[in-house]
Amino acid sequence: QLQLVESGGGLVQPGGSLRLSCAASGFTWVNYDIGWFRQAPGKEREGVACISRSTSNTAYADSVKGRFTISRDNAKNTVYLQMNSLKPEDTAVYYCAAGAYIATLIPRLYDDWGRGTQVTVSS
């Protein structure tokens, strides 16, 4: 059974950093593209970053370019999201998702989702 588990969220001051992890099990990891998404209260879920299965090509939302970095360690079945220079508007529940179609920031193109980890940026 495919399972994704996010970790690493928490409370951080503006300008601070966090590293989120997405640990996967129950499927052939290298056959899937992985995306990070976030959802703030009252807002739609939005794509943050994604990484392709084979070439590890990446893409980022404009709002996080230059601040966030996505990477994957296939030996550990884990994808990371390094978040630097955090802003209050980055506050949201962050989810990772696995997809078998294409690495994209479009949530509906992903099949399997973790339960999320809360990130709060506040002084």
Description:
The chain is an all-beta fold and 123 residues long. Helix content is 0%, strand content 48%. It contains no helices and eleven strands. The strands form two sheets. Strands 2, 4, 5, 6, 9, 10 and 11 form a seven-stranded mixed beta sheet that branches.
Q: Tell me, rounded to a whole number, the average pLDDT.
A: 94
Largest sheet: 7 strands, mixed
Oligomer: single chain
Q: Helix coverage percent of residues?
A: under 10%
Compact overview of the structure:
By secondary structure, this protein is mainly β.
Keywords:
11 strands; 4-stranded antiparallel sheet; 123 residues; single chain; globular; mainly beta; 7-stranded mixed sheet
Question: Topology, pairings included?
Answer:
Blueprint: E1 3-7, E2 10-12, E3 18-25, E4 33-39, E5 46-51, E6 58-60, E7 68-73, E8 78-83, E9 92-99, E10 112-113, E11 117-121
Parallel strand pairs: 2-11
Antiparallel strand pairs: 1-3, 3-8, 4-5, 4-9, 5-6, 7-8, 9-10, 9-11
